[in-house]
Amino acid sequence: MKTDKNKVIKVTVWVLSLCLSAVIMFFFSDTVITLAAEVALESAKAYLPEKGLSLNSQPATQTTAAPPPVTESTTVAPSVTEKEVTTTKKAVQTAAELKFNRTDEDIQQLIKEAEKTSEKDKKDGKISEYTYKNDGVTDKYGLVRVKNVNSKTDINIKKLLGTEAELTVSKNEPSVLIFHTHTTETYEILDRDFYAVGHKTRTDDSGKNMVRVGEEIVKEIERAGYKVIHDREIHDSTYNTAYSHSRKSVEAYLKKHPSVRVVLDIHRDAIQRSDGTKIKPTATVEGKKAAQIMIISGCQEEGGPIEGFPDWKKNLVFAVELQNTLETLFPGITRPLYFSPRKYNMDLTPCSLLVEIGSDASTLDEAVYTGRCLGKAVSQILEKYEE
Q1: Tag placement on the chain: N or C end, fewer CB within 10 Å?
Q2: Dihedrals φ, ψ of 13, to 5°?
Q3: Comparing C-alpha atoms, which of 372, 313, 379, 348 is closest to residue 181?
């Protein structure tokens, strides 16, 4: 009699536990449901006899086959702790904050400040948006378009794309150097169809000049796990000696960090028609305006004006690969690659290039966004050459 009474108590506890689970499931979230169901089931199991009566078995005297187990009692989702839920929410927030085509807060603030005084700006000239495609192109293959202005040197883009760059990369040491020979070059703040002469096209403010664009390139490469050096020094305090000044800086970095092979001199262009209209080279990338990129690669020709640049072909190989990668990731973001009889400081490593991002008519927001795109493309190339 006592044994029957105990069985009744245990079965009653089990039924009440299941009922409690059902109530909780009805009123609470999925996460709580999972936790509550597990607790209730474990409690029920603890009160049931080890043999004879269980969730999935019938009394020993039963001769008919037992019905299939109830799905809810045999398939329980993994439990999720409050800490894990909080961590997941933070991860989602972080992903939203790092949205690729965002406008950063510092730039939003600059735009708000400029809008307050914009009504007073005099319309001194027009700004015209233009997307460069095949303008002046002499050589084209696949996604690569080249404007070759050398008088004696022909190129084979297909062959160049089939050649690997002279580049090996390790995540344990710096592999990229970003610098700005014309550090003080800057952009428009507001996206509009005119410019005011009073707007400064150069500034020492690193939040508005080429350093700000360089920072975005660096962030994207570092996010991929590679080490980058960013030279923020102003090299164009005296404009005519800017390249010799920046050369000394780059040479010092290369001596200290011989692992650096990719060296990018980040500038912005200035394009103006005879009627005073400024050209703003623009592409639309993932629904947002971006400043078009022009990659410049130099050449030494026999009897030509450039000397001391015998390995220029190595730079051109890297230039073509960079443009191909950019166009693959962000179609339309590049202007034709400019291949010219120039050296600048591209002779210092086999992967040294000069890169023009937009023009003085582009906005800082567009240029920073393009910097992000450039950083992503460089990261993809580094991954290919990682040891």
Answers
A1: N
A2: -60, -45
A3: 348
Tokens of 132: 């460069």
Positive or negative, the CA dihedral 356, 358, 364, 369 is: negative
Residue ranges in the chain whose pLDDT is less than 70: 1-98
One-letter identity of residue 210: M
CA dihedral 21→27→33→37, nearest 10 degrees, is 0
